[in-house]
Amino acid sequence: MRALIAAGGTARRLRPITYTINKHLIPLANKPMIFFAIERIVNAGIKEIFINVNPGEKEIQNFVGDGSRWGARITYVEQTGGPKGVAHIIKNAEHYMRGEPFLFHLGDNIILGDLRRFVERFERENLDALFAFAHVRDPQRFGVPVIENGKLVRIEEKPLVPKTDLAQTGIYFYNDSVFEAVSKIEPSGRGEYEISDANTFMIESGRKVGWEEITGWWKDTGKPEDLLEGNQLLLNEVLQKEAVNHGMIGPDVVIQGRVQIGRNTTIWDKVLIRGPVSIGENTVIKNSYIGPYSSIGNNCVVENTEVEHSVVMDYAELRTGTRIVDSIIGKNAIISNAKNTLPLGHKLIVGDNSQVEI
C-alpha cells in the first residue's frame, strides 16, 4: 500500500500566518504538523509516500526531505494548475498511485490512534474504499454522511442542514476504482472537484465501500482556534513519553507537570512553568509564567510575560509585562510593552487578515 498526503492549498483562514509559511509546516507541539501525518502513515506499515504540493513549492521539500528520517521514501507531486479541490489531488496523482491501493491523508488533519486497523480492514474485506467519520460540533463545515438503516448512501458536502453530527475526516482508503470517480464528477458551485462527490459516485456505482467512526480524537486544523486545540491535543499525547529536560534551569524556577525543554535553552530568575508545555532549543525564558498547552519555539526570548494556551514560533520575542492567551505568534514576531517607549500608546504594524485585541 502507498500513501498520498495533501499538502497544497492557500489556507486563507489562517492568514496572516500562512502568508509566510506553508500551513502544513506550522509547528504543533514544536513539530511541523505534516510530520505527525507521516509518522502515523509509517507506523501503519506504509513506506512509499507521495506528497501533493502547490506548483513551485520548495519549502515543504526542504523541511520534509526524502523520507529517510522515517525509513520511508517520499516523492513530491505538483498539483497541475494549482488548487482545484480535494478530488483533483487524486486525479492529478493518478500516474503515481495506479496499480496499488493507497491511503489518502489530508496533511492538515491530526488524529489520535493507529491507522493499522483501517489498513487491515480495507485489505481483509477487499474494499474499493474505506472512509473514517468523526462526531463534530459544526458538521456544516465538512462532508456529512447520509446513513440509512446502517448503510452509507451518499455524502453531502457542507450541507446547510446536516442530517447528522458526523463529518468525513481526512482519512480515505482507495483502490484504482477511485480514478473513474474523480474523472466523472463535475466542479461544484464553488469551482472545485469535491471529494464528497467522488465518494458518493463510488457508493452509487455499487462499489464496495466501508466506513467506520474514529473513536479517538480527530482535528481538522482549518482555523486558528483549531490549531490551538490541535496543539493542546498533541501536547497531551506527545509529552506522555517525550517530556525530557535538556535545558539549563535556574534555582528559582518551578516546573510542574509534563514539560519538554530543548537543548541550550536557559530558564532562570523567577519562572513558573505548568505543563503540558513544549519549549524548543536555544530559547531564553526569565521572570515569566508559561501555562498549560503552550509551545514555545526555538531561539525565542520570553521575559516578564505570561503565556498560556498559545503557539509561539521560532525567533519570537515576548517582553510584554502582561498575559498572552489563546494566541498564535509567528516567526520573528516582537511583542513588547507600550509603557517602555514614548509617546505612550499602542504602536502596531498589522498586516492583512490579522486579529488584534487591545
Topology (SSEs and partners):
Blueprint: E1 2-6, E2 27-28, E3 31-32, H1 33-43, E4 48-53, H2 59-64, E5 73-78, H3 86-92, H4 94-97, E6 102-106, E7 109-111, H5 116-124, E8 129-135, E9 143-148, E10 151-157, E11 166-174, H6 177-184, H7 195-204, E12 209-213, E13 218-220, H8 224-242, E14 248-249, E15 253-256, E16 259-261, E17 266-274, E18 277-279, E19 284-290, E20 294-296, E21 301-303, E22 306-308, E23 311-312, E24 317-319, E25 323-325, E26 328-329, E27 334-336
Parallel strand pairs: 1-4, 1-6, 4-5, 8-12, 14-17, 15-17, 16-18, 17-19, 18-20, 19-21, 19-22, 20-23, 21-24, 22-25, 23-26, 24-27
Antiparallel strand pairs: 2-3, 6-11, 7-13, 8-11, 9-10
Structural write-up:
This protein is an alpha/beta fold and 358 residues long. The protein folds into 2 domains: 2-226, Alpha-Beta Complex (Spore Coat Polysaccharide Biosynthesis Protein SpsA, Chain A); 243-340, Hexapeptide repeat proteins (UDP N-Acetylglucosamine Acyltransferase, domain 1, 3 Solenoid). Helix content is 21%, strand content 32%. The protein is built from 8 helices and 27 strands. The strands form 6 sheets. Strands 14, 15, 17, 19, 21, 22, 24, 25 and 27 form a 9-stranded parallel beta sheet that branches. It has a 7-stranded mixed beta sheet with strand order 5-4-1-6-11-8-12, sandwiched between helices. It has a 5-stranded parallel beta sheet with strand order 16-18-20-23-26, with helices on one face. A hairpin with a 2-residue loop joins strand 2 and strand 3. Helix 3 (86-92) packs across helix 6 and helix 6 (177-184) crosses helix 7 (195-204). The model has no long low-confidence stretch (mean pLDDT 87).
